[in-house]
Design a protein that fits this description.
79% helix; 63 residues; mainly alpha; flat; 2 helices
């Protein structure tokens, strides 16, 4: 059950990301400007997720 829920949320997230990048690329400013904005947004989210993971994951265990 948990695997199905996780898979569903992953697919919804992918669909929303593709739609968001399509909005950026399809703007009147042009393809390259939209692509730069989309990639910058993806990079910013990657950094935010990296910081959140580093802050919440436990450190190495002391034996």
């Amino acid at each position: 059950m948990a695997s199905a829920v996780s898979n569903t949320f992953r697919q919804v997230g992918e669909a929303l990301a593709i739609a968001l990048f399509g909005v950026f690329v399809g703007r009147d400013a042009g393809f390259s400007v939209g692509m730069q904005l989309g990639l910058a947004t993806a990079a910013a989210w990657a950094v935010i997720c990296l910081v959140a993971a580093a802050a919440t994951l436990p450190g190495p265990s002391q034996a």
